[in-house]
Amino acid sequence: MSSLIAWIMRAIPFGTIIMYGAMGETITEKSGNLNLGVPGIMYLGGFAGFASAYYYENSVANPIPALSVLIALVCALVASALGGLIYAFLTISLRANQNVTGLALTTFGMGVANFFGVFILDGATYSAAPIANKAFAAKIPVLSQMGVLGQTVFSYGFLAYAAIVLAIALHWFFNRTRVGLNLRAVGENPATADAAGINVTRYKYLATCIGAAICGVGGLYYVLDYNQGIWATTGQIEALGWLALALVIFTTWKPLNAIWGAYLFGILYWLYQFLPSMLGITVSSAMTDLVQMVPYVVTILVLIAVSLRRKKEDQPPAHLGLAYFREER
After folding, report:
1. Angle at 78 between CA 74 and CA 80, to 5 degrees
2. Which residue positions in the chain have pLDDT lower than 70?
3. Where are the alpha helices (H) located in the chain, listed in sequence order?
4. Cβ distance 226 to 14 under 8 Å?
């Protein structure tokens, strides 16, 4: 039972990181842009949030935890939104290739974060912002001590619950508001949206920048909560960024699906560590690497299933035959 609880408690924070990345990319893709720079943007958000909290804690005699959280959040949102603005300018205004630009942005974000991170590390293996970590990882009082339920449901930082609220809000936004419906129209048929009087360029810019800002919160959550407020020169954020992109496909671009999909990915990702101990078996290192591929394999299977379903839906009814195509033409 203790292993199962530990598994869940490890999977939910992990899922929260990629949930932010997936929701941000979903907003971007709803506008018709495919931003493969999510890993780099998460790097920018994570480093900007950490660096601002780190310098605040080391420049003030008695740092205020709430102010540290606010500074980190604002800096993470601004830095990641700027990354989205770079992508938007190149792909929307200059008509650059989206795939190439996104991959370049991933390299750029990683490079900028690690370059400036060297000055913070100053020769050390890692550096930490303990006050910000304590504030971001604070559990819900009283409820977190309610036995198994408290451990598995109420023992996470506030950003874990904010991600669920954001997913619900995005579902309502896309399906119940005029702006959300306009955004979907821009992504599905920009020419028709333009003819209807919708400013396509404005919607694309806003969706790309806001989506990037949300992705950056995922990087911030990783550094200041999941990774215990520690910044180190590792490539873990990049791996999580690609997993967030996979989650977008897995959830079929629906924010509500991102909630359970992210947690499922977290459970599958940590399968290699907890399931063998629960079953009392030993797994080789080679098998461990294969097991960590499970979330990506599941995403590929879902993509195949969605593609086959769409192909079937696009086929004309059998009883119409050639008449269907004549009418279409």
Report:
1. 120
2. 1, 233-234, 283, 285-286, 310-329
3. 2-30, 38-59, 65-88, 98-121, 130-136, 147-153, 158-176, 178-188, 190-195, 200-221, 236-250, 255-269, 271-279, 285-291, 294-314, 322-328
4. yes
The answer for 126, left when phi > 0, alpha when psi is -120 to 50, beta otherwise, is beta
- pLDDT digit string, tens, across residues 220-238: 999 999 999 999 866 789 8
Instruction: Label residues 272-305 b or e (16+ Cβ within 10 Å = b).
Output: bbbbbeeeeeebeeeeeeebbeebbebbeebeee
Enumerate the β-bridge partners of residue 230: 128
**Residue 304: what pLDDT?**
81
DSSP 321: T
CA dist 174 to 28, 148, 170, 178, 245, Å?
12, 36, 6, 8, 19
CA distances from 22 to 175, 182, 232 (A): 18, 21, 24
Q: Which of 216, 235, 217 is nearest to 160 (CA)?
A: 217
